[in-house]
């Protein structure tokens, strides 16, 4: 039932990207995503796509596996495309009923799909190549300065790593309960929606109870082993930057410089390119894309 | 209503590297009213086998026949066997969800589409069978003790009046008195209600005492299918599967080793007692 979710699950492999410090990956993904939102034009996306392709090649995760995780968000993508195509005002290409399809709409939809694709793939590469533990370690280190403002950074990080740890446990538990209730005649795979909604309560109530029971047990076990929060707690594997991490930061910096430069000079650049290819088919395509 | 496994095979893990055959070509036929003990080492495929028998997962190959009908055939409605094959999972109390004990036991019969009176009379009967007092029918199942919860959960399955009742370690985590109660109940269901029982247990003593026939599963394969006395004659074979003899049989073996001429085929405490009395007389 929950086995198809590959988005966000760690994928074991031996690659540079896997070995990178989680702080680099977190900062990189964050800046990368911001760059996708700030500069909304095709040239910047091209540069972003090149960087992402390089990372995909380096991380040694089968592309098919990575794309399988995208199925979960396919619906959102289709939704965005349909709405952008059908409801964007502009030079109407053709219209029917309340819809009008315009070139501008198609262009917006295209940009939207590229952006969503880059966003989701970049985010999933981070989680695919970083174990949840390292991820929370990285977050804790990055947000440590907030402690000055009395933000319980360590506690948040601990909560997050526990939550992540519980996902497979609870999904296994859910699977068991589904089987037990199916044996008692619940219709989880019925085609009738009412049957399926009715069978949710016998699943959700035991699942919640089990989650609470496990949480209580875990809290007790942690306290019994002397856990008392973040103060004075040391790490078994402290995060330490290596040469590859500094190189990554430099690559990231270069990427941002290039993107910012391209983003600022985009309109001028576009004009130059259009002029250069003027009166050719390619020129016409460029005119459409850039305006 | 005989139940037959026909070359049943089940494989876990879609990924080629991680594939493990949990149930490997098991063929076995179980007649009405039999009390079957199913034993095997942890991870031997017992639970998977039970889930296949109950039609909860689909086999890779082979099939299960209930009353001669293939339950995995394309046009077979699996929902129709829910009232015939009952399965009590490990820690069944984890599936309780209703506000009251009585309502929870009614859940199964309700799903069978029975009339209101029938549902309530079945729930009453099932709760009486497992020895739950009427005073706690309207309590929340979550307020009960561990043993009571377990019995309510079992009542929830019995109330569906299955012809075949499958139990996956129903005594796990209970104290000795609780174990005895549950096993006595299961034995009564077999003798008095004529249910076919398939009981998984880690306790050799329990299966030795109650089962008519024992199936030993090792590494997904059906290794031994015989009466308890025959099974516990295969000491070395059982040990190679990570299983052992019942405690009393072990004790008898030790007695014999220390020079007392007892027969070592006693598998229950009563048999052992008679045998020792016979020897010392």
Explain the overall architecture.
The complex is a heterodimer of chains A (291) and B (281). By secondary structure, chain A is mainly α. Chain A is built from 13 helices and 2 strands; from the N terminus they run αααααββαααααααα. Chain A has 2 domains: 1-130 and 242-291, no CATH class; 133-240, no CATH class. In chain A, strands 1-2 form a two-stranded antiparallel ribbon. The longest helix of chain A is centred in the middle third of the chain and has 31 residues, at 153-183. With 281 residues, chain B is of the alpha/beta class. Helices cover 36% and strands 22% of the residues of chain B. Chain B has helices at residues 46-53, 101-111, 116-129, 146-158, 176-191, 204-210, 228-231, 235-240, 247-257, 269-280, and strands at residues 3-12, 20-30, 35-40, 61-66, 69-70, 85-88, 164-168, 196-200, 213-218, 221-226. In chain B, the strands form 2 sheets. Chain B has a 6-stranded mixed beta sheet, sandwiched between helices. The longest helix of chain B has 16 residues, at 176-191. Chain B starts with a strand and ends with a helix. The model of chain B has no long low-confidence stretch (mean pLDDT 90). Chains A and B meet through helix 8 and helix 10 of A and strand 6 and helix 2 of B.
Helices and strands, with pairings:
The complex is a heterodimer of chains A (291) and B (281).
Chain A: H1 16-19, H2 22-38, H3 42-59, H4 63-68, H5 71-87, E1 92-96, E2 99-102, H6 103-129, H7 132-142, H8 153-183, H9 193-198, H10 201-224, H11 243-264, H12 266-276, H13 281-290
Antiparallel strand pairs in A: 1-2
Helix pairs in contact in A: 2-6, 2-7, 2-11, 3-6, 3-11, 5-6, 7-8, 8-10, 12-13
Chain B: E1 3-12, E2 20-30, E3 35-40, H1 46-53, E4 61-66, E5 69-70, E6 85-88, H2 101-111, H3 116-129, H4 146-158, E7 164-168, H5 176-191, E8 196-200, H6 204-210, E9 213-218, E10 221-226, H7 228-231, H8 235-240, H9 247-257, H10 269-280
Helix pairs in contact in B: 2-3, 2-4, 3-4
């Amino acid at each position: 039932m929950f086995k198809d979710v590959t988005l966000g699950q760690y994928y074991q492999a031996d690659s540079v990207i896997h070995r990178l410090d989680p702080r680099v990956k977190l900062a990189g993904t964050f800046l990368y995503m911001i760059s996708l939102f700030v500069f909304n034009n095709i040239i910047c996306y091209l540069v972003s796509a090149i960087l992402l392709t390089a990372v995909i090649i380096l991380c040694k995760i089968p592309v098919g596996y990575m794309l399988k995780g995208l199925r979960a968000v396919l619906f959102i993508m289709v939704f965005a495309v349909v709405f952008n195509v059908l409801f964007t005002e502009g030079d109407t290409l053709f219209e029917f009923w309340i819809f009008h399809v315009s070139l501008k709409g198609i262009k917006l939809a295209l940009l939207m799909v590229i952006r969503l694709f880059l966003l989701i793939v970049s985010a999933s590469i981070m989680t695919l190549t970083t174990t949840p533990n390292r991820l929370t370690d990285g977050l804790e280190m990055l947000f440590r300065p907030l402690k000055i403002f009395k933000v319980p950074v360590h506690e948040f990080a601990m909560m997050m790593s526990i939550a992540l740890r519980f996902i497979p446990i609870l999904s296994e538990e859910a699977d068991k309960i589904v089987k037990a209730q199916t044996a008692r005649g619940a219709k989880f795979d019925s085609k009738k929606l009412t049957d399926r909604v009715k069978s949710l309560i016998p699943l959700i109530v035991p699942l919640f109870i089990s989650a609470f029971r496990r949480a209580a047990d875990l809290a007790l076990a942690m306290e019994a082993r002397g856990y008392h929060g973040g103060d004075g707690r040391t790490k078994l594997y402290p995060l330490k930057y290596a040469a590859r991490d500094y190189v990554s930061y430099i690559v990231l910096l270069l990427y941002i410089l290039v993107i910012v430069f391209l983003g600022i000079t985009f309109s001028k650049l576009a004009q130059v390119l259009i002029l250069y290819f003027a009166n050719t088919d390619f020129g016409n395509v460029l005119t459409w894309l850039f305006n | 209503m005989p139940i037959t496994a026909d070359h049943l095979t089940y494989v876990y893990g879609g990924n080629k590297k991680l594939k493990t055959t949990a149930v490997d070509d098991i063929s076995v036929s179980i007649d009405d009213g039999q009390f079957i003990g199913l034993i095997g080492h942890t991870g031997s495929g017992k639970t998977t086998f039970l889930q296949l028998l109950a039609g909860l997962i689909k086999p890779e190959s082979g099939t299960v026949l209930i009353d001669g009908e293939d339950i995995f055939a394309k046009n077979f409605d699996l929902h129709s066997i829910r009232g015939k094959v009952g399965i009590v999972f490990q820690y069944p109390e984890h599936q309780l969800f209703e506000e009251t004990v009585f309502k929870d036991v009614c859940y199964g019969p309700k799903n069978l589409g029975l009339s209101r009176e029938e549902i309530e009379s079945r729930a009453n009967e099932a709760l009486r069978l497992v020895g739950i007092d009427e005073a706690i029918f309207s309590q929340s199942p979550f307020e009960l003790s561990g043993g009571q919860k377990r019995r309510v959960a079992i009542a929830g399955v019995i109330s569906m009046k299955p012809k075949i009742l499958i139990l996956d370690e129903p005594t796990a985590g209970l104290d000795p008195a609780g174990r005895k109660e549950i096993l006595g109940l299961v034995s009564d269901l077999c003798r008095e209600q004529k249910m076919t029982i398939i009981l998984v247990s880690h306790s050799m003593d329990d299966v030795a005492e109650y089962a008519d026939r024992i199936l030993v599963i090792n590494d997904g394969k059906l290794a031994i299918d015989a009466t308890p006395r025959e099974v516990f004659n295969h000491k070395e074979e059982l040990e190679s599967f990570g299983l052992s003899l019942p405690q009393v049989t072990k004790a008898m073996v030790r007695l014999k080793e220390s020079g007392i001429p007892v027969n070592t085929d006693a598998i229950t405490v009563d048999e052992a007692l008679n045998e020792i009395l016979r020897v010392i007389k």
